[in-house]
């Protein structure tokens, strides 16, 4: 049975929520062992380029550890695909990002996509991830925000869903999108099925897309090319220089 690490990039991702996410993703992919973990140090929530920089070393540590533990693939549960290229250099097992996975899945369903994310500060980071994904920027109608933080979304699923529906309707009506990507892995497991039913267009959940692409690569016995992502020549400990104290 394939074993995939779905890695959260927020330190404040409680064990309860990790277990809930793990149960959900395992039910979507019943013939796969999905293990959900999070980084142990870094930003409380990854919501900006600043936060992304704080998360780098912790993400690398978890990805390298996963390969040593025998995982068949790692999925990064963040739409900005933090340090995806670096992670692919660090290990030989497939590493996929939620942003790239969601873009690829959405573009099998429609020709004009919108992303609905958390708040305006995240929009530049997501445009950067879209450009890095290899997908044409012209295929994206827009990125809009519900203007809620991850902490606020966790406090009220009802308010989150209401804001998502409001903004999703706007991108369909005003931006002429044909499908929508939920722009944060923390928008909740109920958001995608409810919105798909109400809006009557494809809505891609990034958690499901990430594990799905990872499963496909494992099944096809494929991983990132060493020509595109040259394998590292040093361990993390050899390469990383800690602060020197007098």
Q: Briefly, what is this?
A:
The chain has 246 residues and is an alpha/beta fold. It has helices at residues 15-28, 49-68, 84-90, 98-106, 123-132, 150-155, 157-174, 191-199, 206-219, 236-239, and strands at 3-8, 33-38, 73-77, 95-97, 113-117, 140-145, 179-182, 203-204.
Main pleated-sheet profile: 4 strands, parallel
Euclidean distance between termini CA atoms = 51 Å
Shape estimate: globular
CATH topology of the largest domain: Rossmann fold
Q: Would you tell me the overall average pLDDT?
A: 94
Structural class estimated from helices and strands: alpha/beta
- How many beta strands in the DSSP annotation? 8
Structure description:
The chain is an alpha/beta fold and 246 residues long. It has two domains: 3-97 and 208-239, Rossmann fold (3-Layer(aba) Sandwich), CATH 3.40.50.12500; 100-205, Rossmann fold (3-Layer(aba) Sandwich). Helix content is 45%, strand content 15%. It is built from ten helices and eight strands. The protein has helices at 15-28, 49-68, 84-90, 98-106, 123-132, 150-155, 157-174, 191-199, 206-219, 236-239, and strands spanning 3-8, 33-38, 73-77, 95-97, 113-117, 140-145, 179-182, 203-204. It has a four-stranded parallel β-sheet, sandwiched between helices. Helix 4 packs across helix 9 (206-219). The protein is globular and about 55 Å long. The termini are far apart. The model has no long low-confidence stretch (mean pLDDT 94).
């Amino acid at each position: 049975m394939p074993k995939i690490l779905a890695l959260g990039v927020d330190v404040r991702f409680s064990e309860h929520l990790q277990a809930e996410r793990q149960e959900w993703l395992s039910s979507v992919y019943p013939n796969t062992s999905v293990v959900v973990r999070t980084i142990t140090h870094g930003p409380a929530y990854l919501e900006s380029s600043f936060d992304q920089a704080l998360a780098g070393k912790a993400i690398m540590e978890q990805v390298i550890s996963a390969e040593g533990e025998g995982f068949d693939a790692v999925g990064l549960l963040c739409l900005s695909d933090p340090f995806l290229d670096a992670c692919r250099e660090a290990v030989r097992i497939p590493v996929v990002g939620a942003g790239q996975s969601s873009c690829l899945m959405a573009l099998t369903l429609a020709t004009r996509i919108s992303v609905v994310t958390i708040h305006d500060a995240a929009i530049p980071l997501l445009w950067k991830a879209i450009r890095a994904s290899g997908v044409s920027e012209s295929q994206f109608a827009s990125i809009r925000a519900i203007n809620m933080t991850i902490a606020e979304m966790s406090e009220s699923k009802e308010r989150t869903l209401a804001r998502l529906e409001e903004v999703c309707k706007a991108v369909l009506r005003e931006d002429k999108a044909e499908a929508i990507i939920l722009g944060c892995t923390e928008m909740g497991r109920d958001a995608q099925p409810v919105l798909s039913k109400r809006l009557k267009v494809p809505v891609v959940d990034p958690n499901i897309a990430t594990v799905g692409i990872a499963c496909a690569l494992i099944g096809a016995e494929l991983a990132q090319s060493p020509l595109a992502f040259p394998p590292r020549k040093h361990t993390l400990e050899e390469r990383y220089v800690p602060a020197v104290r007098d």
